[in-house]
Design goal:
With 476 residues, the chain is of the alpha/beta class. It has a domain at 12-91 and 271-307 and 322-354. It is built from 16 helices and 19 strands. It has helices at residues 48-53, 76-85, 91-95, 113-134, 146-149, 153-169, 187-199, 201-204, 216-226, 230-233, 305-317, 331-339, 354-366, 421-432, 441-448, 462-465, and strands at residues 12-13, 17-18, 72-75, 96-98, 141-143, 176-181, 207-212, 239-242, 257-262, 271-275, 282-289, 295-300, 350-352, 370-377, 391-396, 399-403, 414-416, 436-440, 470-475. A seven-stranded mixed sheet has the order 8-7-6-9-14-19-18, sandwiched between helices. Strands 3, 10, 11, 12 and 13 form a five-stranded antiparallel sheet that branches. α6 (153-169) packs across α7 and α13 (354-366) runs parallel beside α14. The radius of gyration is 23 Å and the shape is globular. The chain starts with 11 loop residues before the first strand and ends with a strand. One of its GO terms (biological process) is methylation. It is an enzyme of class 2 (transferase). Pfam families: Methyltransf_28. GO terms for molecular function: protein-arginine omega-N symmetric methyltransferase activity. Residues 11-22 have a biased composition (Polar residues).
């Protein structure tokens, strides 16, 4: 699983997070509850006047800013988007290093899974030792992907699936066009192209590969990897790296294409809502950032159009599906819980994958003939409180540090969400009109991967045994 970081002393909480201050302003000494502010167990300061006074900002409006905002408020999805993707201080823009294990693991010579874990730990240390020689960082955000751990077998399985389906339905009338969003080091691209070139030269001659990458640093890394060796340079005329957010995509692509989104859903921004336990009315969460950089949550009964649309689409698409949520318990039980002394005045938060809904809209309108291939986590351990809630973590002195709120210093923390693939399958179908199939990570790779290549002497299979909490969804 992914992991990332910031100084431990910055992991303090108080109805949000508090960080380093510059000449703090005077704060009113009051615990009076406002109509806007979520009541918590420790009664935070009343910030209603600041909420009325501070301007509303968006993640798009903050892209050109080099400093983290203060004296402002924004929707939770804008706060998360800004924290992860701001070009000047965002997590993926400035702080992420993707682990590369060097030479591929020779799984057939590894005795068992404990030995694989030991070897992986050694390579992690060696990799970070080399980075420390160039620049020492206690807060280096280092994480790994299945593409890197199980290369080339992971990428070859994806390639085998695409080639089989391409030859079945598109060949020879169309080229094999592949889009990948969020390509990391570019390893998946190289493994896929290497495989197609080796096993099917005729298909390779008609292959085109386009990466859509929001991070300028990662786009440069992908380009560097493409020209790092003679073998990879041979793919250069087939590859285009487009340095922009997929949410800014404005080109209509009528041709059939495969669209890869491997472990990107988890870092799509989410909105947050809480519900009135009596009326069941949703209230949308915003984040207030005061003059000291402290964070406070506020909830408004007026939903913005994006969150309101998500709830409408989910209600229509998932009528026959059971899914977890704050309103799934009996009304009398909710009322009883919230009538207890010091009980919160709203339900636990529910995080809505509104950015993922927008991504499906882009696929449906800009890539009408696409076939989506995606893999991501359907559950995550040690998540923050709430429904569909994220894991929020950072990395300090080579150790993972978990916190209990997404209201953290922007750019230093990974905020990753689980994906309810049942709900997302229904929403994807409703928005795009395309049919899908969902399966476990193990089932997909059992069918399409060279599983003998990742089998250890004990009979354990690393690629099938890991990522038990991940699923794969494909367009059929």
């Amino acid at each position: 699983m992914c992991s990332r970081s910031v100084a431990v002393e910055q992991c303090r909480q108080q109805s949000g997070q508090r960080y380093t201050r510059q000449q703090p302003e005077k704060k009113p000494k009051t615990t009076v509850e406002s109509n806007w502010q979520q009541r918590t167990d420790h009664f935070p300061l009343n910030k209603s006047e600041d909420f009325k006074r501070y301007p509303t900002v968006t993640s798009d409006g903050l892209r050109s800013r080099k400093e983290r905002p203060r004296r402002a408020k924004m929707l939770m999805r804008d706060f998360i988007e800004d924290s992860l993707y701001n070009p000047h201080y965002g997590y993926f823009s400035k702080n992420v290093t993707i682990f590369s294990p060097g030479a591929p693991f020779d799984f057939n010579r590894i005795p068992d899974e404990p030995e694989f874990n030991r070897l992986l730990g050694e390579r992690y240390s060696q990799f970070e030792d080399e980075l420390d020689k160039e620049q020492f960082r206690e807060d280096r955000q280092l994480w790994h992907t299945p593409t890197e751990l199980f290369r080339p077998f992971y990428g070859e399985a994806i390639a085998r699936y695409m080639v089989a389906n391409y030859k079945l339905t598109l060949y020879p009338y169309h080229d094999l066009v592949i889009y990948e969003v969020g390509a990391g080091n570019g390893t998946l691209m190289l493994n896929i192209l290497d495989y197609i070139r080796r096993v099917d030269p005729e298909v390779y001659a008609r292959t085109r590969y386009r990466i859509i990458e929001v991070s300028s640093a990662l786009a440069k890394l992908q380009d560097h990897g493409l020209y790092a060796s003679a073998a990879s340079r041979g793919h250069s005329d087939k590859v285009e790296i487009i340095n922009k957010s997929v949410f800014d995509w404005d080109t209509y692509v009528p041709e059939p294409c495969f669209f890869l989104a491997m472990e990107v859903f988890d870092n799509f921004a989410h909105d947050v809502v809480r519900y009135d336990p009596d009326t069941e009315q949703p209230m949308q969460g915003s984040v207030l950032i005061d003059a000291d950089g402290d964070f406070y949550e506020f909830y408004d009964r007026n939903l913005d159009p994006v969150a309101a649309r998500y709830l409408r689409v989910r209600d229509a698409a998932c009528q026959d599906r059971q899914y977890a949520g704050p309103l799934r318990s009996p009304p009398w039980l909710r009322k009883l819980r919230h009538s207890l002394p010091f009980a919160p005045n709203l339900t636990l938060p529910e995080y809505l994958p509104t950015r993922l809904m927008q991504f499906f809209h882009i696929l449906g309108t800009k890539f009408p003939a696409h076939r989506l291939i995606t893999s991501d986590f359907h559950s995550l351990p040690q998540a923050t409180p709430g429904y569909n809630a994220p894991v929020v973590q950072t990395r300090y002195q080579r150790r993972t540090v978990l916190v209990t709120t997404p209201l953290v210093q922007q750019g230093y923390f990974d905020i990753l969400f689980p994906t309810d693939f049942g709900v997302m399958e229904d929403i994807y179908r409703a928005i795009t009109g395309r049919l899908t199939r969902v399966m476990t990570h193990e089932d997909f790779f059992q069918r399409w991967a060279d599983v003998e290549g990742t089998e250890m002497l004990s009979g354990e299979n690393a690629m099938l045994g890991w990522y038990k909490n991940a699923s794969v969804m494909v367009t059929v």
